Amino acid sequence: MKIVKMLPFLDKEELSELLDSLIKGELKEENIRISALLPFLEKEQISHLFERAVAGEANIRPAAILPFLDEDDYEGIIDSLVENEPETLSLEELLPFLSEANIKKVFRLFLEKEKKQE
Amino acid sequence: MLDLKLIGRKLTELRQSQELTQDDIADKLYVTHQAVSRWETGKTLPTIDNFLMLIKIYKTSIEDILCLDEPLVVGDKEFFLDEHDRAFSIHEVALRRTKALTLADLVPKLTTEERLYALRLMTQNQIPTDDTLWPRLSLTERIWLLRQWRDKGYTLDIEKIRYMLTPAETKIIREVYHENRKNVAISRQRRTK
After folding, report:
1. A89 part of contact set with chain B, CB < 8 Å
2. What 3-state class would DSSP assign to A19?
3. E strand or H helix at B169
4. I want to staple B24 with a disulfide (CB 3.0 to 4.6 A). Which of A71, A87, B20, B128 is the partner?
5. In this structure, are residues B169 and B140 in contact, taking their beta carbons and an 8 Å threshold?
6. Using CB atoms, which residue from A100, A111, A114 is nearest to B68?
7. Residues 6+ apart with CB under 8 A from B165
């Protein structure tokens, strides 16, 4: 039986175990992709995965996780991205998911940073 | 959320209103004309600094260029996903930001991952599942929704969908009702003692 078919029936701990195995590369990608797990993960599991992905420690693009993050997660990401953009994620990839207030915040922070550099 | 396709159409409209070509914009911003084309077809967004340059060139505002104040327009339902950004479409329809289109209309055209993303948005925001959506979902998706109802407090109108449930789905509901009845009986016993 394919693991993907079992996902709706797994509890939080089992999903955590599966996620860790995928991050560590213990399970082959042909059996299941990390992205298939995303709809089933809890908020803190998603945040943890996102941090690992930004650090390049998980086999998934951080941008693929963005739709599954919450508004409060985005706020933290904006601050760190404006400060120092990692190679794995750009501000432009984040923009489509932000609220109007956060979009304006990005532009304001970006302008402030530009002024400081001048 | 931003609708990349709508922004693309706005960028084209603003450029044409200034009688500029894609090459003119590419020269001003030191990018390729292919990059300008990708922005205008809604495939990618300009970088923040290019956005700021475009705002200056087109003498407009962030709100205008990003179409922040524009209402969601649903033309032909059939072509909705072609006319708007997919992630944006799923987000707006799952959260019922439009009355012209429901998730049941969209679901057959979505990938497995997009469908689960839509369902997750619905459950997180307590958007009720209507009886037109239920028959269009796969067994996996339906079981997942029932588990959200059972474990996470997602509001599901069981009576509306009861006649469409498979034996496996009915079993989940029976277990919950049985558990609830047991809890009510226990609390009654405690009260009488």
Report:
1. no
2. helix
3. helix B167-192
4. B20
5. no
6. A100
7. B173
- Kindly determine whether residue A96 and residue B4, on different chains, have CB atoms separated by under 8 Å: yes
- pLDDT per residue, tens digit, chain A (118 aa), is 677 878 888 888 999 999 998 888 887 766 788 888 888 898 889 999 999 999 888 889 999 999 899 888 898 889 888 888 888 888 888 998 998 889 998 988 888 887 777 7
| Two tokens, residue A70 | 């919450």
> Tokens 């693929």 identify what position?
A64
Whether the full predicted model's pTM is greater than 0.90, yes or no, is: no
Collect all residues from B whose CB is shorter than 8 A from any CB in A. Answer: 1-2, 4, 44-49, 51-52, 62, 66, 68, 85, 87-88, 91, 113, 116-117, 119-120, 140-141, 143-144, 147
The answer to whether the CB atoms of B120 and A39 lie below 8 A apart is yes
Q: Does A111 touch chain B (CB under 8 A)?
A: yes
Nearest CA in chain A to B70: A100
User: Domain segments of chain A: what residues?
Assistant: 3-117
The string of pLDDT tens digits covering residues B81-127 is 888 999 899 999 999 888 889 999 999 999 988 998 999 999 988 89
From start to end of A1-118, where are the E strands? Answer: none
If you search the block for the tokens 């997750």, which residue do you land on? B120
* A3-117 carries CATH number 1.20.1070: no
Count CB-CB contacts under 10 A for residue B172.
16
